[in-house]
Write a structure and sequence with these properties.
Elements (H helix, E strand, L loop, with lengths): L4 E4 L4 E7 L4 E9 L3 H15 L12 E5 L18 E3 L6 H10 L7 E7 L6 H10 L6 H20 L2 E2 L8 E3 L6 E3 L6 E2 L29 H16 L10 H4 L5 H8 L5 H10 L10 H14 L2
Antiparallel strand pairs: 1-2, 2-3, 2-5, 3-6, 4-6, 7-10, 8-9
Length: 305
């Protein structure tokens, strides 16, 4: 049975597995087709990422596997992945036994798609922030700024390919063991736009990280800039749990918002807070550009190394 679940998202569950040919760990995200929109989201994620050029801060899709009532378990999609080539890290079963275990799972008795990506055993940004919190330490400024710079680079790359992520949050940022690389993942809510100025009209995202314009159902690429600002705030304030998350889209409307944040985060350098607050500007068109934010955050990170 698949017992090594390493995460759960809005559209499915993620398990650790081992690629038999190379003996390396991978992550397999299973998304059941309970509703048509879930199937659409899963396939949209796969197709969008597969056609993107490689980028160091964007999770690559190594392959995908689909199972429907009309499709056998070992069917392939572009990328050449088959479930026969993978095993869970807790079993040495044969391919036949492995397929039997998969089919016995209640989650997988229905139609589903799975996306195969590299496995980051160090976990996501939320996990790392909580680690520092448990130790009674602040999250290092240099690392925070470096993560922010890499997120700006990743999102700028997506925007250049007409993709809006729409769900940037600590859980969707994977980190290497030494924090040197941040990788943006989980494109289940991503949206491909036809034109840079196109306005989208849906309500999406994780509440503490949602741009205010998303609540009106009409937004553009700048909504991702707001979300990065929220992530930078969550790191510095160490507020990454549902119980202590701050709804910045609501607080930003209050008088004295900027001064309040500056006082709360006085332990962080003004340059970092300045970039973050320039992302958290209500009119989307007045937010700092990703390019400018990247340069400033990269400079801050360099000064702390």
């Amino acid at each position: 049975a698949l017992r090594s679940m390493i995460g759960r998202g809005g559209f499915g569950e993620v398990y650790e597995a081992v690629r038999r040919s190379a003996g390396e760990s991978v992550a397999i995200k299973f998304i059941p087709f309970k509703k048509e929109k879930e199937a659409d989201a899963a396939m949209r994620e796969f197709l969008m990422i597969m056609k993107l050029p490689a980028h160091p801060n964007i999770i690559p899709i190594l392959g995908a596997i689909v199972k429907t009532e009309q499709t056998p378990l070992n069917a392939e999609l572009p990328g050449g992945a088959r479930m026969d080539n993978y095993s869970t890290n807790n079993t040495s079963s044969t391919s036949t036994a492995h397929r039997s275990a998969l089919e016995s799972m209640p989650l997988l008795r229905q139609s589903w798609v799975s996306l195969i990506t590299p496995y980051y055993k160090e976990g996501d940004l939320r996990k790392h922030v909580l680690w520092y919190m448990r130790r009674g330490e602040r999250f290092p400024v240099g690392i925070a700024a470096n993560i922010g710079a890499q997120l700006c680079r990743a999102v700028s790359f997506l925007h250049s390919h007409n993709i809006i992520h729409r769900d940037i949050k600590p859980e969707n940022v994977l980190l290497s063991h030494n924090h040197s690389r941040a990788v943006l993942t989980d494109f289940g809510l991503a949206k491909e736009a036809d034109r840079l100025v196109q306005t989208l009209k849906t309500k999406v995202g994780s509440l503490p990280f949602v741009a205010p314009e998303c609540f009106s159902g009409s937004y553009r690429y700048q909504c991702d800039i707001w979300s990065i600002g929220c992530v930078l705030y969550a790191i510095a304030a160490m507020r990454v749990d549902a119980g202590n998350a701050r709804m910045l889209f609501n607080d930003a409307l209050k008088p004295g918002f900027r001064k309040d944040v500056e006082l709360e985060l006085a332990h962080y350098p003004p340059a970092y807070i300045g970039v973050m607050l320039d992302m958290l500007v209500m009119p989307p068109e007045r937010r700092i550009s990703l390019e400018n934010a990247h340069l400033q955050l990269e400079s801050i990170a360099a000064s702390f190394t």
